[in-house]
Amino acid sequence: MQKTKNYNLNKPEPDDYVIVGDLNYNMDEIDKLIKAVNDALEVLSTNGVNLLDLLKKKADLDNRGKVLVSQLPDLDVYKDVLMYEARGNFPYTGNSKKLYVDMAGSKIYRWTGSTYVELSPQLKIGEVKGTAFDGARGKALEDAMKDRYTKKEVNDLLNAYKKEIIEEIHSDIIEQILAYS
Asked: Is pTM beyond 0.85 here?
């Protein structure tokens, strides 16, 4: 009688007779191993989804504990922020992966595929007693800034912050994805 390599089960030689006791021993050992595997898997709640499919969906981490960029969803939705002097200067047909800024009207738009939709009305600026300053104070600051900086200097400053704004948008999108996943 031989033993199997991995689980040391009884394995008859080609000229051996099969003994019922050996078969029963093998079946009992296999039963214990299968039960141990099933018990270990029951700890993982997969809600009826195949465990291997779930593992394929997980993100790997780099040496800093951060999700690899290659495994993040495509967040290039608003890769570019395009600045225009006025709304009338926007292209006739836009690009849905870009934000369009009307600098004269201080408004932000996106292209829906058929029209530009203003995003900036969703931003509410005002005063809530005891929590924020009067929105008109921002206008006073803007007026004071006009006296100190040229339009080119302001545009250069806005362009410098463009990357930070895009990163903030991406960060917000990632937080929302993680919150709903």
From this structure: no
Instruction: Calculate the CA dihedral of residues 142, 144, 146, 147 and round it to 10 degrees.
Output: 180
Token representation of residue 179: 């919150």
Q: Which amino acid is at 8?
A: N
Can you name the residues that pair with 100 across neighbouring β-strands?
A: 82, 109
Euclidean distance between CA atoms 106 and 118, whole angstroms = 11
CA angle 36–47–32, rounded 5-degree value:
10
pLDDT of 14 reads 82
Q: Where are the domains of the chain?
A: 2-58, 71-179
Name the amino acid, one letter, at 97: K
Residue matched to tokens 């191993």: 33
Name 129's Cβ contacts closer than 8 Å, sequence gap at least 6: none
Handedness of CA 34, 36, 39, 41 (dihedral sign): negative
* Cβ atoms of residues 98 and 79 within 8 Å: yes
Give the span between the Cα atoms of 56 and 71, in whole angstroms: 11
Using one digit for the tens of pLDDT, what is the confidence trace for 106-163? 888 889 999 999 886 655 444 455 555 555 555 666 666 666 767 777 677 777 677 6
